[in-house]
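User: What would this chain look like folded?
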Amino acid sequence: MMKPHTTPAPRRIAVVIVAAGKGTRAATGGGDTLPKQYRSIAGRPVLARTLEAFARIPGIDRIIVVIGAGDNALFAGLGHAADGCETVIGGATRQQSVLAGLEALAKDTHAPDLVLIHDAARPFVSAEVIARVVEALEHAPAALPVMPVPETVKRLEGGTTVVATIDRSALATAQTPQGFRFADILATHRRAAASSGTQFTDDASIAEWAGLAVRAVAGDGRNFKITTREDFERAETQLSEGNAMQTRTGQGFDVHRFVDGDHVVLGGVRIPHDKALSGHSDADVLLHAIADAIYGALADGDIGSHFPPSDPQWKGADSAIFLRHAVERVQARGGEIRLLDATVLCEEPKIGPVRDAIRTRIAEIAGLPVARVAVKATTTERLGFTGRREGIAAMTLATVALPRED
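Assistant: Here's the prediction, encoded as structure tokens.
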């Protein structure tokens, strides 16, 4: 029997954006000494785009921007993008700057539960990556997005002689935002600051040094860090071409009949009821229909082709497995889910009281902001099998952006 899913209490989430560096590697060579985070791509400063990416995320309570000494006027010049953000002066190193941001949060009587630490020079961070990091913090004290290493890796001796080929299957490159339970990373940063000669290049390294478990989640190739002049050119291209994405829509439909029982599972949420739904897995008709809609947008079969009901390993399985698989198929093709829209057709149980819990759970499973998940419910005016209370049906649509194949 599945354990009931309970929606956790809202957590206070803060963001620390590290923007104190000078970015000398991005200098144009023409006398441009403006720090890279204040330089423009497609007419907008890099830092403004980064701030706007986080400002769009529901549930973020505070944004602390760690800026360089003397950069107050540059920050003020960002205009509306800086509204609602707080600034702190950073230190000589990234590590010192992050600690300054964390200490600013610690002074508040209502310190955050979670903190996301992000590079100012990553303006293309997506809501999906942020959501995956936050969700991972349910299970681990630290999390970061990573990308697989695509090239063969060699170890050199003396900088010129190849002495070994490294197995890259266990290697990955780190991105930001890196997420942490606030109390853990604050204590760890303080320890690192007190440890003479200990310097780290990112915050996950500090967590590793302190023995905290770090959970890796899927990153995004578009979430690259702007470091060099070539990176600025890549950013301009990415913006001007819209990353060459096409929008596709898939639909899903599923039905499960009622049998004797004491609850139904809809959208990953257990709802007390005097009947249960019959199915080979947990019979979550809503998650099944959503997964099928995503597969449809990909033209990638259906849930039965990926998880045959004849296979005994799926008997009683949590349908979250199926939805996660569909989402991973989107990510594997370099795409993202823009919207999930679902309608549940039933007379009972009543969906209204648990609608928000269902939306939240679907968003957690899919790694999406809740704002991209719509759940509606309707009856069929006592007509048909749903009107006779013989079962539940679900109709869904999934809007997916994929790289163009033409």
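The chain has two domains: 13-155+168-240, 244-403. If you want, I can go into more detail on any region.
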